[in-house]
């Protein structure tokens, strides 16, 4: 293993026509061998333009990220999507992001570095829309030095705050019934508000309206299956927007099995 030397962080960012600027931001400015950290594609969009969620809905295209590193022992995980919002225009519904977007992924660096730095490069492809749509891409890179202790990067705070909470303590279930998936919980605390569920898999769901109703102490959200779905999902994945009693609104990532009623 090479001796640890802290070198200046090197970041590449790219202007994308007049509609957007993309850059690659790391959660740390120096990394420890084998210790996981995060990187985020930061997209700043001009006013009125939007990009799309993992499930774009009835139109659009989800952003794609293709990663390369200088170490075969390093790996970059999938995008951890932040909460989108429902956008309607011309009778078409979509899940979108506007203004600023952080697309975060978890990185596992090598336990035994073969150099003084870890080089990460990503080709990001997305669709940006306003009155018309423009396919766009950016080639971004970052070089992070290895060190005895990681050094947090304060620039990453906005990306971290946009991440949904993993898992749930509210006993959620999902069942298929009559061409719909019912997402429910029998143990929600009184006063908890459910704003929206954003299903992540476009193979099974669009951006159709769904209903939310209280069932005693619990709640159930009825989510229509896409008319193009040829089968029912075995798992329900997506982001649940909630507002716990006395706590500000937050997003929760759900990944739960779907059963037949």
What does this entry look like structurally?
- This protein is mostly beta strands and 261 residues long.
- The strands form five sheets. Strands 15, 16, 17, 18, 19, 20, 21 and 22 form an eight-stranded mixed β-sheet that branches. It has a five-stranded antiparallel β-sheet with strand order 2-3-5-11-8. It has a four-stranded antiparallel β-sheet with strand order 1-13-12-7, with no helix packed on it.
- A hairpin with a 6-residue loop joins strand 21 and strand 22 (250-260).
- The protein has one helix at residues 157-162, and strands spanning 10-11, 13-16, 20-26, 28-30, 37-45, 50-57, 64-69, 75-76, 85-89, 92-98, 100-108, 117-129, 133-145, 151-152, 165-166, 172-177, 180-185, 193-199, 211-215, 218-224, 235-243, 250-260.
- Helices cover 2% and strands 55% of the residues.
- It has one helix and 22 strands.
- The radius of gyration is 20 Å and the shape is globular.
Task: Report the major sheet.
Answer: 8 strands, mixed
Uncertain runs are 1-11
Distance between the termini: 56 Å
**Estimated radius of gyration:** 20 Å
- The count of strands amounts to 22
Helices, by number, come to 1
Overall shape: globular
Query: β content, as a range?
Result: over 45%
Structural class: mainly beta
Q: What is the arithmetic mean of pLDDT?
A: 87
The helicity comes to under 10%
* Helix/strand order, N-terminal first: EEEEEEEEEEEEEEHEEEEEEEE
